[in-house]
Amino acid sequence: MGTFTFKIENATQETITLRFVNKSHSSSLANRLGDGNEEEVILLPQEEKIIRVIDGQLNSRAHDCLTTHGIAFFNELVFDTYVNEEKLDKQLWQAENWTFRETSKWSAEYKMIITNETIER
Questions:
Q1: CB of 119 closer than 8 Å to CB of 10
Q2: Domain ranges across the chain
Q3: How far apart are CA 12 and CA 108, in angstroms?
């Protein structure tokens, strides 16, 4: 069993809201701690938050499952993005927007930095 933590940094001066499409069935530990996995996450300007903690079945070391297996492995990661309550047409949750970092043999972190360029229409 591996744990994947997803963090997003809002590097803009805008308020960004993520509204998740699929219900979260992730880590009960994270839910108890109040760390990520809410159905809506609000990122204030210059704020970073954990948005999801997902337990995954791993037969080998933690690796970049999002790039390897696509969103099917992390279907609860799909979200609509709102900038100052206006829906963004871009699908920011896609694999190319995340950087991967192994944090231990069985754990990894994905991080996305939302910049002004990212949210340009």
A1: no
A2: 2-119
A3: 25
Tokens found for residue 58 = 């791993």
pLDDT in tens, 60-114: 777 777 877 666 667 788 899 999 999 999 999 988 999 999 999 889 999 999 9
Q: Angle at Cα 64 formed by Cα 34 and Cα 2, nearest 5°?
A: 50
Taking a C-beta distance cutoff of 8 angstroms, is the pair 20, 40 a contact? yes
Q: What angle do CA 98, 109, 30 make, to 5 degrees?
A: 120
Q: pTM for the whole thing?
A: 0.82
DSSP calls for 47-81: -EEEEEEEEE--SSS---HHHHH-GGGGGGG-EEE
Tell which phi-psi region holds residue 8, choosing left (phi > 0), alpha (psi between -120 and 50) or beta: beta
